[in-house]
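Predict the 3D structure for this chain.
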Amino acid sequence: MAPIDQRNILDEEPFQYQVFKDHKVQIFWNNKPVMLLKGLAAQELLKKLEKSEGKDIQLVLAKATGNFKRGNERALKKKR
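Done. Predicted structure below.
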């Protein structure tokens, strides 16, 4: 079985998360908001995060965001 993080990107801890009062979970990648989870999805993610530590937290957050960096990023337009 191949290693999950072959390029060791998760060692840099690119993912962060924030829990709001209304039990929503915002996931950030390199300090940029990527995903907002609510309801049951947010509860399940928090349960997984409570059981995880270290690099496993990064892996859980990466799996929660899915494949978000595959062509759906928008290039920033320069203001004139």
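The two ends are 51 Å apart (CA to CA).
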